Each structure stands twice: as C-alpha cells, then as structure tokens.
Amino acid sequence: MNNKPLLILVNLGTPEAPTPAALRSYLKEFLSDRRVVSLPAWLWQPLLRGIILPFRAPKSAAAYRAIWQKEGSPLMQYSRALVNKLSEALAGHASVRLAMRYGQPGLKEILEENPADEVVILPLYPQYSSTTTASVLDACCQWAKRRLNLPNLHFIRDYHQHPRYIQALADSIRQAWEKQRGELLLFSFHGIPERLDAGGDPYAKQCRETARRVARELGLENHQWQILFQSRFGREAWLKPYASETLRALAEEGVASVDVICPGFAVDCLETLEEMAVENRDLFLQAGGKHYQYIPCLNDSAAQVALMQALFEDHVSRQAR
C-alpha cells in the first residue's frame, strides 16, 4: 500500500452521453439505490423498468443535451477540474482522485486501483442526507466487505457550516451583486421527501443553517432572503417551499428581480444549469418577473479548492491528536 493518504472526492454521477440509452443505464443504477427510493424491489423494479425508464430517459436526455459541453457533462468537467487543482494544492501530502456514486469512475474501482494505508472519503455534498452522503458510505462498506486487508478509512460527513464554505458562498454572491442585485436572494436546495425529515434526516436543518449563516455574513435581514427546495420526484410530499411554485408566486406578488444560488451543489449540473438557470428562470419571467440572476456553484474556483484543502487538512489534524 501507499504511505501517502488517498483523498477521494465523490460526486453523485452523470450519464456518459446525452442519449436515451445512456440515461436509461445511469437512471437504472441511480433509482435502484434503496437510499434514493426505499420501496420494496418487487414493487419498484417493475415500475422503474417498465414505465419510468422508458418515459424519463428520453426526456432527461433532451435536458442533458441542452447543457452538454464539448468535453462532456458539466458535472464531470467541473469535478475533474476541481480534483486536478486540488491535486496540485496537496502535492506531496495526498493523492487525490475523483469517484462517482453512480456511473464512472466508480468508487469501488477507484479504491481498488489506488491502494493506500489511509483513505479519506469526501462526498461533495455540503449538507448530509441519507439519500446522498449515507449512500456513499454504503458503497464504501460494500467494497470493504470483500477486502481482507483494509486501510484506515475516514469519512467526512458534511461541511454545511464550515467557515471557508460560508465565506466562499458569500463572496460569490457579492461578486454577482457587483453586476446587478435583485430584490430577493433565494437559496435553492435539492429536496428530499418530508417523511425522511420527520424520521430524523438532518438535511433540511443543515440547509437552513447554511442559508442562515450566509445571510448573516452578507448582513441580510430576514425579509431579504428565502430558502427553496427544488427537483421533486414522485407524488409524495417533499420539503417545502417548492422552488417552481414559489418563484411563480413571487413574480405574481410583484417581486421584479431575484438572485438564485444553489449551495447544496458543489459543482454545476443538470439541476442547476437546466432546472434553475433556465426552466425556473422562464417560469419566473413568464409570471411577470423582470430579472432573474442565477449565481453559479463554486465549481473549480480558488475558493472551492481552498475549502477542499482545508477540509482534508482539518480532518488529518483531528486524527493526529
């Protein structure tokens, strides 16, 4: 094994191409995770394979084509760029690799191909959720079950209130405000079912804490900012307020301009570039709004690289005590 620690940044994943076939393969793996959809397999799998995938894959492929870059999906490109820059920042201190929870490069393959005495797993989810962060840990445990010689395996659970994260978000908002500032700042987070929140998942609480700290850093009053939850799936109740309904209502109530940031996403992806920057922008403007500014994710910015470096070094420092 390698004596240099291995740091693995884990993102959700992305299809290999913006085609129905690629989306069908990706969504099948993603939506078969019991952390994502907890219905019994005997009930869910026939619905997934017979109804959902045939209809959703072509629709999702069209959405991906709208944001696809020459080099591939934005999520993959920004994640790779972040890992490359972090590798330079941590040169001599750690080997840095990228893995995806679904799709490629797979977490299992990265662990197999990069043996090390110390492995640090850093999911690129600032706020912990059983649907995302816990699923990464599940995958690590599945890999570990088949190993005879295990490394010291460390897991960074979340960083929703880390000072560098809060500062980086606040600075990105200030930078956007240098061009134009809307009447209301909206923090849009990916939603989860309400039953998970009621059952003890801390995600919603952490989302609200992130937004509260950023608003405080910016010196905002309560009426100057609001939290939204986006990307609903299925018919059950999810965390509220819903992004699409709230944006329409704000425009109808006379709010002319809004700034929108998605702090739960480390890098831009389908849910930010298509859903929030295009689809919900159009909805807001069609309902009477005048200006809608989407503020990009931290992506591979210097502030994001410094944050990832600090998370790793903080963790190593705690382990050394």
Termini Cα gap? 24 Å
Helix-strand sequence: EHHHEHEHEHEHHEHEHEH
Q: Any low-confidence stretches, pLDDT <50, length ≥5?
A: none
CATH class of the largest domain: Alpha Beta
- Using only C-alpha atoms, the radius of gyration works out to 20 Å
The largest pleated sheet is described as: 4 strands, parallel
Can you list the strand order of the major beta sheet? 2-1-3-4
Number of domains: 2
Structural class: alpha/beta
Q: Classify the helix fraction into a percent range.
A: 40-55%
- Could you give the count of β-strands? 8
Mean pLDDT: 96
**CATH architecture verdict of the largest domain:** 3-Layer(aba) Sandwich
What do we call the CATH topology of the largest domain? Rossmann fold
Instruction: Kindly estimate the percentage of residues that lie in beta strands according to DSSP.
Output: 15-25%
Count of helical stretches: 11
Tell the overall outline: globular
Considering the chains and any ligands shown, give keywords for the structure.
321 residues, alpha/beta, Rossmann fold, 4-stranded parallel beta sheet, 11 helices, globular
Please describe the topology of this protein.
Layout: E1 6-13, H1 20-31, H2 41-67, H3 74-89, E2 95-102, H4 107-113, E3 118-123, H5 133-144, E4 152-155, H6 163-177, E5 184-190, H7 194-198, H8 203-218, E6 225-230, H9 243-252, E7 257-261, H10 270-286, E8 291-295, H11 302-320
Parallel strand pairs: 1-2, 1-3, 3-4, 5-6, 5-7, 7-8
Helix pairs in contact: 1-2, 3-11, 6-8, 9-10
